[in-house]
Structures are given as structure tokens and as C-alpha cells.
Specification:
The complex is a heterodimer of chains A (about 220) and B (about 375). Chain A is mostly helical. Chain A is about 80% helix and about 0% strand. The radius of gyration of chain A is 20 Å and the shape is elongated. In chain B, the strands form three sheets. In chain B, strands 6-7-8-3-9-10 form a six-stranded mixed β-sheet, sandwiched between helices. In chain B, strands 2-1-4-5 form a four-stranded antiparallel β-sheet, covered by helices on one side. In chain B, strands 12-13-11-14 form a four-stranded antiparallel β-sheet, with helices on both faces. The chains are: A mainly alpha (about 220), B alpha/beta (about 375).
Amino acid sequence: MSPELINLIVQATFESLYMVGIAALLGTAFGLPLGVFLATSRKGELFAAPIVNRVLGIVVNATRSTPFIILVVAIIPFTRFVAGTSIGSTAAIVPLTIASAPFIARLVEAAIREVDGGLIETASSFGASPLQIVFKVLIPEALPGLLLALTLAVVSLLGYSAMVGAVGGGGLGDLGIRYGYQRFMPEMMLAVVVVLIALVQLVQSAGDYLARRVNRRLRHR
Amino acid sequence: MNAHQSLAIGQPIERCEAISPAAAEPDAMVRFASISKTYPAYRGKPGVNALQNIDFAIPRGSITGVIGRSGAGKSSLVRLINGLEKPTTGRVVVDGRDISALAGRELRLAQRSIGMIFQHFNLLSSRTAADNIALPLEIAGWAKADIKARVTELLALVGIADKHDRYPSELSGGQKQRVGIARALATRPSVLLSDEATSALDPQTTRAILDLLANINRELGVTIVLITHEMSVVRQLARDVVVLDAGHVVESGHVADIFTHPKHPITQSFLAEVTGDSLPVSLASRIVAEPSAAGQAVIRLQVRGAGVGDTLVARLARELGLDVSLLAARIDEIGGQHVGSLVLGIPLGISGGEDAVARTLAFLSQHQFSAEHLGYVA
């Protein structure tokens, strides 16, 4: 493989990491509070607001049921409004964030719901405010689950990022399609797939390691 | 303006009427005044009247047991004390403050003076023993250095100073409950609520935890409210007892009085568990309705009160000329009173058959013992 092609792969890898990294950060910034709210706002819960909970649930489901490639195209005007352009890696972060936030929210909701309800009652019994319960009880206790959820979100984002090539987003997926498929370069396709596999393995291992480290539930038995 | 005035004047009068004689006891730490608690119907489940007409006071500095079967309303009752639940009607006054009228920040401040321990300990798995104890102090906004000092003090108080950096998964059940107790006491509460705190522990650990609670009550003067379904817990620790059944207080008073003169069937059944009123299985299976020539009549008598029973069997044998045998017996001393039961065998063949049974029952009733003829054994 020529140095030019290797250079292309390196550049595409950085584009992918850039898109996925920023989208994961933004997705978490929106998805984490949304997920915590979804997990604590049903009837009788900490921030009880059943109607808001229901509406947000529908919005989240609607976003999640839209195929990503259609979402990318459908929100082009919004992307242009936010990023100034609808082409390139930076612009691709917009649809990636919009797709990942509801996904992360659902994963966060599930992780928070895993926390023993008795702990909420306990913290309430010594006068903790709802926000104190979220930050001192729910999030620390759900941390292993939250880290695994985030890991899963990043892995999914790597998959999504391959699709933003369709709107000029760049990255590894784009490289694979343009060179590997359209220019009939199977070695390029193989290289892209190998890099993606390596990235996913790396992210998953790191996530598993961190989740295990913060999990005090079984570690010392 | 007028409307406001009449409201302000109207309220205290209404409240005065709500206070019952029992609840008006001057030195009460917790007062329940005309409490009822109803859970509304929800998702097809019918509504539940968890508590009705609850009126009693828990004396300051006492250890009071609240005993009842599951579903009797114990958990609702204890959660009214620390404001986790609101009464449907009536008031709960804790340390002179109407906790049922508080909400938001005021309620949270009041809750700091009410500690609670739980059946399943409810420790945060992500925090060490020390950090679990620190949690209520962090929530109350204590300074870091003060928290550190207080936590060290509390770990020593509950006897696990060496477990400072251990996570709950590294602790035994008894040690976890000690952490729970230390955490509940962290903000120096005046009331400690115990919700089945020993139900998940083995008998030996239960005893140690109950001893610890007794020490805490004695040394810190903390009023302790024990929710339990086990009479043995009440017997070991409590001075006063409240018996709950189906949302009503069916009996309440000093443990010694209730144990020696139980009135309600529920109380009697709880008592049977600790005093062994139920017969040993091997004996119960041998009892038949018809007498046999060489057999014995089985008579059970209740022992309730001070200094009884000790000479009873001897006197029965001497005065009635019967060879009385002791088939089963259990007598405990509870609050200075003897409580228990004796199961006597009256031989039929050598002492005149049915007549002996009648004479024995007459003798016992003459000496104020409650006795029953259970049947015969061969």
C-alpha cells in the first residue's frame, strides 16, 4: 500500500475519532440529564412529572426509530443553521449528536432504574434533596452501568459515523465506500474494516476496564 | 383580609380538637393524633386503608416496639414519623414539631433529627463504611474536617473502627447494620427509627445489634422506635409496646403489662411465639380425644405474673394427692414478670380417672390460673 493511501487512512481515522468523540461528549451532555429525568419522573418518583415523561418518551422513541441515514438528510437545514455548513466532519457532528442523545438517554435510564429504590428512600429519610439524591446516590451507584452504556454508545457512533460519508462527512466509512467500493480497492476496504475493528475493541476494553474498576458490588467477594 | 383572618383563627381550634388525651401527654417524643392513612386505588388495585384512628404517644428517651403482622401498617406508621409519607388525616408531632405539615426544605431540615435504619441496611455499594456514614453529613452541609472527626467517632461508637475503608461488599450483615446505625446517628438525631433492622440477621448477630441499640439509648438518650414482627425483639429491648393489626392499634402499654395480661388475640399469638404456648410437636401429635386406662390427661396452664408456678406442681401433687408429671414447660422472665406455660400430665389409672381432671382444673382456677384440658395421651 502506498504512503498516500496510508496517509488517507490515518486522516480518515482522525476524522472518525473527531466526529465520534465530540458527538459522544455532546450526546452525553444532553442524554445523561434526559436519561436521569426519564428514570425519575414517572408518577410517585423523585421528579414526578408523568405527562412530561410521557411526551419526552415519545420524542425519544421517534428519534430512535428514524433510520440514521434519513435523519442525516432530513435535518440538513438544521445542521446548516447550527454548524454553518452541511458538509464535512464538523457538520456531521450535528446528526450524530441528535441520534446519540436519545440512545444514551435510554441507556442511562435503564442504568439508573437498576439502582435499589431503597437507597432513594434512605437518602430521603435523612433529608437529601432530589438533586442531592441524583448526584450523591443515583449517579455514583449507577456508575458501572453508566460507563458500559457510554461504551455502547461510542461503539454505535462509530457505526453511524460511517454513514455520514453520504453527505460529505468524511471518516473511515466514507473512505471505505469511495476507495474500497467505488474504486474497486479491496485492500483499502480491508484496511478500513481492520482499523474499525481495532477501534471498537479498544473502546470496549477500556469501557469494560473502567466499569469493573468502579464496581464495588462484587469485586471483593 | 377577612378570609385570611378567619383561616388563621380557625386552624388552631381545629388542631386542638384533633389532640386526643393520649397524644397530649406532655413528655412525648412522637405523638400520633387521629391519624389515618389511605392509599388510593391505582392501576386496577383497590385502595387500602393502611392506618385508622391511630392515637398514641411515644415517650421521650424510651424504646418503643411497634409489632404487627406484615400488612398491619407498621411501615406506613414509621414512615409517617420521618415524613416520608403524609397522613391522610391527623397529625404527627415529633419533638414538638408537626412533621406532617412540613414540606420541602423545612421537612428536609427536620428529617436530620430523625435517623432510620433498615432491614436490608441500604448502604451505598460505591462508598466505603466511612463514606457511607459521611453521606448524611455531606447532605447537611458539614465541613470536611468536621465530617472526618465525626465519622471516626461514630465508627468507634458502633464498634467497627477498623472497618473505616471497607466497602459494604466486604462486610458481614452485622457489620453492615453497624454502619447503618452509625449513619443514622451521624446528625445527632433525637429519634432513631428501626424498620425490621434485625430481620435479616442471625440470632446471635441480632442479639449483638439489639445490645448496641440499648447502649445507644442509654448513653445518648435517643428515643428508639422499633418496628418488628418478632416479639423476641420487643422482649429483649423495648419498654413500651404498641400492637398493630389491620391498621388499628389493638393494644399498647408497658411491655411487662402487655406480656403478662395480653387481651387481644393477635397479642396472644405473638406472645405464644416467645413463651412457647404452642406444644412440642412430638407431644401435640400424641394427644387424642378419648382417654385410655393407663394414659394421662393433658392440661396446659398459663403462667403470668410475679413469683408464681414455683411451688405449684408440688402443691398440686400434695393437696390433691396426684402424681402430676410435667410434659412440657417454658417460663421466661420479662420485665420482672414470669411469663410462660406449663403442660401437665394427670395420670388417670391410679388417681380416679375423670375426677382427677375436674379436681385439678378446679384447683387451678381457684388459684387464678388459666388452664385448659387439651386431651389425653396414652
